[in-house]
From TrEMBL:
Its EC number is 1.3.1.76. Pathway: Porphyrin-containing compound metabolism; siroheme biosynthesis; sirohydrochlorin from precorrin-2: step 1/1. Coiled coil: none annotated. InterPro entries: Met8-like, NAD(P)-bd_dom_sf, Sirohaem_synthase_N. NCBIfam families: cysG_Nterm. GO terms for biological process: siroheme biosynthetic process. It catalyses: precorrin-2 + NAD(+) = sirohydrochlorin + NADH + 2 H(+). This is precorrin-2 dehydrogenase. It comes from the Bacteria. Gene3D superfamilies: NAD(P)-binding Rossmann-like Domain (3.40.50.720). Keywords: NAD, Oxidoreductase, Porphyrin biosynthesis.
């Protein structure tokens, strides 16, 4: 099984400026709902494509915070996007989203099989003016544990 081009190399960490830029999330379930607020907070122009959506996605659409296309993914849905997330429960659809994204040179997260994507979502936390983002080479649990330890250290008083 091919596990993407970056399997043997560590990711290049980067802070993306998504304000005003189109982000397309294909799939409107629990994963999309969990990631949605971070895109909104970043000022992204978010479009969600999904025939069924989580209540949090519906709420954001009703508030006008995101554009919701209540239908199945179709080729061309990533047009003019800067970033994409394939988060359906159907691997073939996620693969088609990644294929379109790759052809258009759009970074794409595959929520169902991270090694196949061209981008990964780090474990993120905030303390005051600091953002901590941890990528433990495709091990989300290790990323979360490391992030939590770093945030705990930032919140602890410095012994001197």
């Amino acid at each position: 099984m091919n596990h993407g081009p970056g399997l043997s190399h560590p990711p290049y960490p980067s802070g993306l400026i998504l304000a005003g830029r189109r982000v397309v999330i294909v799939g409107g379930g629990r994963v999309a709902a969990r990631r949605l607020q971070a895109f909104i907070d970043a000022g992204a122009a978010v479009t969600v494509v999904s025939p069924e959506v989580d209540p949090a996605v519906r709420e954001a659409a009703n508030a006008g915070t995101v554009t919701l296309l209540e239908r199945e993914y179709a080729p061309g849905d990533l047009s003019a996007a800067w970033y994409a997330m394939a988060s359906t429960d159907r691997p073939a659809v996620n693969a088609a989203v990644l294929e379109e994204a790759t052809a258009a040179r759009i970074f794409c997260v595959r929520a169902d099989d991270a090694p196949l994507g061209t981008a990964w979502t780090p474990a993120v936390g905030h303390h005051q003016e600091t953002t901590v983002a941890v990528l433990a080479n495709r091990d989300p649990e290790r990323s979360r544990r490391t992030r939590d330890r770093l945030l705990e250290a930032l919140r602890s008083p410095i012994d001197g």
